[in-house]
Amino acid sequence: MLFLPALSLLLAAAPALDPVPGASPRTDLDHVNAQLLEEALTRVDRRLRRSLTLLENHDSWDRRWRIASDHYVVQTTLPYWIGRELADALEAMLPFYQNILGTSHLPTSPVDVLVFPTIAEYNGFGNTHGGTHSSVYSSFYADQAPGAPVAMVANDNMLALKIWATHSAVHQYLYEAFGPGLDTFVVEGLSAYFSLIYWSDAWAWGQLSELEGTRRYIPLRRLVNEGIDSYASEDTHARLVIQGTFFAYLLHFHPETSIVPEGEEPRQEGFQQFLQGVLRSGAPIAAQPNFRSELERLDGYERDFLEFEYAP
Question: How many angstroms separate the CA atoms of 267 and 258, rounded?
């Protein structure tokens, strides 16, 4: 019969079993078969229990998933695989933060990422714990809430989840690595740069072209001088697209400010060095000693930026 060769292989691989005293050869075989069957059933039961946990009901906030990577814990009622992918995506961004910002910092404790099922629950959390929160943009860093988590609202679009989560995770990272009171333009620009350019650069540059074509472009001098409250308005999307692509342009494309290849001498006036200097100072751009000259340089860079044509 067909099962006999398979049984022979199992018997060959199985550990030696003590014979039953006084039993016949047939009874010995029954004993072996029973033990093998018991071991197989135990393994199947263990695997089944593990798989069934993925099918448990997690569609209410009190039964939400808690899915951890090394430095993030995603709490969500969305399917497990979405939470797993989001936690892994946030973890994968940490080396990029370190490289651009010139720091070895990592979150000192796991950062909770609360993915609320509805906009009402998200807004309720934001209103309860204060801080800068807006339903216009679907995530924020809740530095005044217990545990200082990242909060966001659920979405079926995985790209949108990664962009929103990364944006506010950068806020958390900058706050912990460099302290509070950082320049708004730099913080929002870096958050937009990491979240938009790293996850969907072609889409971000396409959005910039659309803003220019519909005359919704916001001049950089205005963005530099405005505070965080300005980002709670209907043009939040425009602000973040402009800043994210502008930071990408100066970091990677402009011949005078871009990051040089590894092994070459860094630029004295590179944009990466400028950003690192502002972050280390802890002061706004307007308080920097060379603020006015930087504004003049910014005007020239903006003209180049608007003439630049991105090619993937």
Answer: 8
Report the pLDDT value the prediction gives residue 285, as an integer from 0 to 100.
Answer: 82
**pLDDT beyond 70 at 131:** no
- C-alpha 169/C-alpha 220 separation (Å) is 24
> What is the pairing mode between strands 139-141 and 150-153?
antiparallel
**DSSP single-letter state for residue 195:** I
User: Does the pLDDT of residue 138 top 50, yes or no?
Assistant: yes
Residue with tokens 């011949």: 255
Query: What confidence score (pLDDT) does residue 54 get?
Result: 57
Give bridge partners of residue 72 from the DSSP assignment.
111
Domain-wise residue ranges, the chain: 3-53, 61-178, 184-307
Per DSSP, the three-state class of 70 is coil
DSSP 65-80: EEEE-SSEEEEESS-H
Going by pLDDT thresholds of 50, 70 and 90, the confidence category of residue 219 is: very high
With H, G, I as helix, E, B as strand and everything else as coil, classify residue 4: helix
Quote the crossing angle between the two packed helices 158-178 and 80-101, to the nearest 10°.
40
What distance in Å separates the CA atoms of residue 143 and residue 230, rounded to the nearest whole number? 19
> Could you say which architecture CATH assigns to the domain 61-178?
3-Layer(aba) Sandwich (3.40)
Given the DSSP bridges, would you call strands 111-116 and 150-153 parallel, antiparallel or unpaired? parallel
Measure the CA–CA gap between 82 and 202, rounded to whole angstroms: 23
Question: Is the entire prediction scored with pTM above 0.85?
Answer: no
